[in-house]
Design a protein that fits this description.
Elements: H1 3-6, E1 35-36, H2 44-78, E2 85-88, E3 92-99, H3 111-129, H4 135-157, E4 167-173, E5 177-179, H5 181-198, E6 207-208
Antiparallel strand pairs: 1-6, 2-3, 3-4, 4-5
C-alpha cells in the first residue's frame, strides 16, 4: 500500500480557515494602556459623557471671566495709571496700564485685527469644548476658553471704540511684562493642553478595548459540519 493510501482523509465538514473578524471598536487605534482612542462621529455614550462634562467646563470658564473682569474693575478704581504698587518687592507689582496690542504691546496699530483673531479663537475653542469628554482636558480648555472670551470682551466693549478696545493689565512681573487674570488662564490652559498631549491623554475619553475573540481550534464543534 502506498504512502498516499495511509494518509488520513480530510474531514468533510471542516470549515475553511478564515481571518478572525474585528469590529469597529477593535479596529480603532489602541493606546499603550490597552484603551481605544475614539475616532469618527460621536457615539451615543460619548455624547452622554460630553453632556456631563460640558456644564462644568462652562461654569469654570464663566468663573474665570467674572474673576478677570472683577479684578480689572478693582484695578481701574483703585490703582493710579502707570504707578507701581509693590506686592512682592519689586518682583511683582500692581501697575495699571492699557494695552491696545497683543502681548508685550505688539501690534498696537492693528487692534481691530487682534479683535478678529480673538473672535476666531473663541469660536474654535467653543467647537473644541463641545466635543470634550475628558475632565482633565475640560479644565485646561475651559481656562483658555474663559481667558479668550474675557479678552474678546475687552476688545469689543472697552474704550476707545467698539472692536478697538484696550486690554486692562495690572500685574507687573519683574518690570518685564504686565498682564491680568485672563493672561494667566490662557498660559496655564495652553500649558495644560500641551502636557496632556505629551502624556497621551485624549480629549475624548478612550474606551477599554474589548477582548479579541480567540480563533477556535480545528477540533472544536463549531468547525464540524
Amino acid at each position: 500500500m502506498s504512502d498516499a493510501e495511509h494518509a488520513p482523509a480530510a474531514h468533510e465538514g471542516a470549515a475553511p480557515d478564515a481571518t478572525p473578524h474585528h469590529d469597529a471598536v477593535n479596529d480603532a487605534p489602541e493606546s499603550a494602556t490597552g484603551t481605544v482612542e475614539p475616532t469618527g462621529p460621536l457615539q451615543p455614550h460619548e455624547t452622554a459623557r460630553i453632556r456631563r462634562v460640558l456644564p462644568w467646563t462652562l461654569v469654570w470658564a464663566a468663573g474665570l471671566i467674572l474673576l478677570d473682569q472683577a479684578t480689572k474693575f478693582w484695578a481701574e478704581t483703585t490703582l493710579e495709571r502707570g504707578v507701581g504698587v509693590p506686592v512682592i518687592g519689586d518682583w511683582i507689582q500692581w501697575r495699571l496700564v492699557y494695552n491696545p496690542g497683543a502681548a508685550f504691546g505688539i501690534g498696537r496699530e492693528y487692534t481691530w485685527i487682534l479683535t478678529i483673531v480673538a473672535a476666531l479663537a473663541v469660536i474654535g475653542l467653543a467647537v473644541f469644548v463641545a466635543r470634550i469628554s475628558s475632565a482633565r482636558w475640560a479644565v485646561a480648555v475651559g481656562a483658555m476658553f474663559g481667558g479668550a472670551i474675557s479678552h474678546l470682551a475687552d476688545r469689543l466693549f472697552r474704550e476707545p471704540a467698539f472692536a478697538r478696545g484696550e486690554i486692562v493689565d495690572f500685574i507687573d512681573y519683574f518690570g518685564f511684562f504686565v498682564g491680568n487674570i485672563a493672561d494667566i488662564a490662557l498660559v496655564v490652559g495652553a500649558g495644560g493642553m500641551i502636557l496632556l498631549s505629551l502624556m497621551g491623554v485624549s480629549p475624548r475619553r478612550p474606551e477599554r478595548r474589548a477582548p479579541d475573540p480567540s480563533p477556535a481550534a480545528p477540533g472544536d464543534p463549531q468547525h464540524s459540519g
